Amino acid sequence: MTLLQLALTFFSIGLFTIGGGQVAITLMQQSLVSTGIISQAQFYNMVAISESTPGPIGINMATYIGYELYGVPGALIVTGAQVLPSIIIILIIARFLKNFNDNLYVKGSLAFLRPVTTGLILVPVIQVIMFTLINVPESISVLTTIEGWKGLFNWICLAAYGVFVFLLFKVKLHPIAVILLGAVFGIVFL
Fold this sequence. Notes:
Layout: H1 3-16, H2 21-33, H3 40-52, H4 57-100, H5 104-133, H6 146-150, H7 155-169, H8 175-189
Helix pairs in contact: 1-2, 1-4, 2-4, 2-5, 3-4, 7-8
Subcellular location: Cell membrane
Protein name: Chromate transporter
Family: Belongs to the chromate ion transporter (CHR) (TC 2.A.51) family.
């Protein structure tokens, strides 16, 4: 994939990302992993790094992928392509907002987009859980044995997930501290 093709890919992702960067993850995965530009493992590593760094995840992912594939110029061009549709749409909306603010069709379309966006956000959450915590068996017949069930989960990651959820919600540890602990855990145990 050339830099121009990558920029156009991220322009289209930016154009159709309604609901924020979490929705962009699904579109990026379909555009990058399914076409073989990057592997699934690389993609989830990029998601983890992009989630751990400040800023919107969609822009972080665009910057990271652009940099990984084409260096600093790639990072700048792909990031610009990712944000350009949003800038254009915001300028158009700002120009016509007063005219359409009370329009029933606009209200109806926005009401319909809420559940769709929720579903698009849920997809990468489930995919990350499946990739990190569950070892999907090649055949369902493996689950007919105790050993098959023992191998179903990545027990170290599942235990760490439980500990981090406890630290985040019960101990009220700051999310940045949890992210740093997660990075240290990954370096030490995985």
